[in-house]
Inverse folding.
């Protein structure tokens, strides 16, 4: 999404399109019936084999599972691998429980997207959120290797 307005300071208008300077917001969106729809952040886009994926599409699939807490899933790319962080409702499950849950999630992901991901099950309240309560994928990505996991399913 690019914005041009007289109320934007000129030094922020850095993207030139057809001789007009715009502010690049870093957001993805589209216009339909003269309305702008926000889709996500450019930096969160996941690219696999030349195709773009939105992390919230993966997160939606995972959070449909009743064993996962809503609003506690983050998906991002790191070192050409898709990483999934999520908080299960049952924090005291056995290793068999987490293996079964990981297989359910992988089945759903493979069925819809056609590839596998690495899954990290985290303790409650481990997912990093913004002050407004949204998942902070960039902070999760920076810290996921040091987060306390209940179980992992790495391919």
């Amino acid at each position: 999404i690019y914005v041009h307005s007289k109320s934007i300071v000129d030094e922020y208008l850095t993207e030139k399109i057809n001789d007009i300077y715009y502010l690049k917001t870093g957001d993805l969106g589209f216009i339909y019936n003269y309305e702008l729809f926000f889709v996500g952040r450019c930096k969160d886009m996941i690219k696999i084999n030349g195709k773009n994926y939105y992390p919230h599409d993966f997160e939606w699939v995972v959070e449909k599972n009743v064993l996962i807490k809503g609003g506690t899933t983050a998906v991002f790319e790191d070192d050409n691998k898709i990483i999934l962080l999520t908080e299960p409702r049952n924090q005291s499950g056995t290793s068999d429980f987490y293996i079964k849950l990981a297989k359910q999630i992988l089945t759903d992901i493979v069925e819809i997207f056609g590839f596998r991901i690495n899954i990290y099950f985290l303790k409650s309240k481990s997912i990093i959120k913004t002050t407004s309560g949204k998942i902070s994928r960039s902070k999760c990505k920076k810290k996921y290797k040091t987060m306390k996991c209940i179980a992992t399913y790495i391919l």
In short: DSSP finds three helices and eleven strands in the chain. The two ends are 36 Å apart (CA to CA). The first strand starts at residue 2 and ends at 3.
